[in-house]
Each structure stands twice: as structure tokens, then as C-alpha cells.
Amino acid sequence: MKITDALYGEHGMFYPIFDYFESVMQSGPELSDFKAMTSVLGKMVVTHAGIEEEILFPALDKHLGEAGPLSVMRREHTEIDAYLDSALSADTSEEAVGHVRNMIGLMREHFAKEERVLFVITQKVLDEKEQEDIAEKWSELRGVGVMGTDAHTCFG
């Protein structure tokens, strides 16, 4: 498995959560419940960004340098964190909803950039072994066992 496979998969898990949040935000959620939901989303967001910054970006820095797409990705991670912090410290539901709405909007744009640009670049500049080695680090950080494609090793 390549690191981009893992990260595309993580993005896929976020999209229905974003949709759910957007439906909840329309109904004017109660502040404490909304903050609790946002806290869970925040843990997911922070670990996802952390994995990118800890294991993917350093490998790409060698090829791309810290400018260009990686500087945009890092800056957006910081902006997403700021929206999250603001939502969790909000005094009203309306304020929290506004910050989460901004965060999700930015995350959708950010994921699109990663999927259409950064992950494509990753597949071009990192050889297959590098991508697989990074995916192995991802599996360790996530606590996920990744087997080869030979399914009979698992089932029989």
C-alpha cells in the first residue's frame, strides 16, 4: 500500500462527517453538545494533519523544498487549527457554528488541493518503495495492520 492510498481513504472518511456537521449546523445545535462533537472531529483533524506533517511532508521536502505546495498545506493546517480552537472556545452556539463552518469549508478546499495536486506530485516524485515505507509508518501511527495483497494469507 502507498501512503497516498491511506490518505485518500482518510479523506473519504471525513466527507460524510462534514455532511453530517453541515446538517446539524442548520438546526442551531445546543452549544455543549456541538462542542463535544467538534472535539471529536478536532481529534481526527489534528491526527490526520500530524501524520502528513510528520511522515509525508518531510519526504516531499527533499524533492520540493519547503516552499510551494507544502508551504500552502502547512499554512492551511495552521488555519484549520485556529478555526477549531475558536470553535471550542466559543461562548455561543452561533459563534461555534460559524467557526466550524469555516473550518469545514477550508478543509474541503484543502483536501481537494491534496487530492488533485499534492498526492499526484507525491506519486511522481517518490518511488514506490518510498511511498510504501511511509505507508508503513502511517500504519504504525494509526495502529492499523496492513497486509500484502495476497488475501489467502489472512483467510486461509
Task: Describe this protein's structure.
The chain is mostly helical. The chain has helices at 3-26, 31-64, 69-88, 93-125, 128-142, 152-155. Helix 1 (3-26) runs antiparallel to helix 4 and helix 2 (31-64) packs parallel to helix 4. The longest helix is centred in the N-terminal third of the chain and has 34 residues, at 31-64. The two termini are 21 Å apart.
Brief description of this entry?
With 156 residues, the chain is an all-alpha fold. It contains 6 helices and no strands.
Give the helix/strand layout.
Layout: H1 3-26, H2 31-64, H3 69-88, H4 93-125, H5 128-142, H6 152-155
Uncertain runs: 149-153
| N-to-C SSE string, H for helix and E for strand | HHHHHH
Estimated radius of gyration? 17 Å
Count every helix, treating DSSP H or I runs of 4 or more residues as helices.
Answer: 6
Task: Note the main sheet.
Answer: none
Give the number of DSSP strands: 0
Strand percent estimate: under 5%
Q: Would you tell me the overall average pLDDT?
A: 93
Q: Approximately how much helix is present in the residues? A: over 70%
Shape: elongated
**Cα-to-Cα separation, first versus last residue:** 21 Å
Give me the secondary-structure category.
mainly alpha
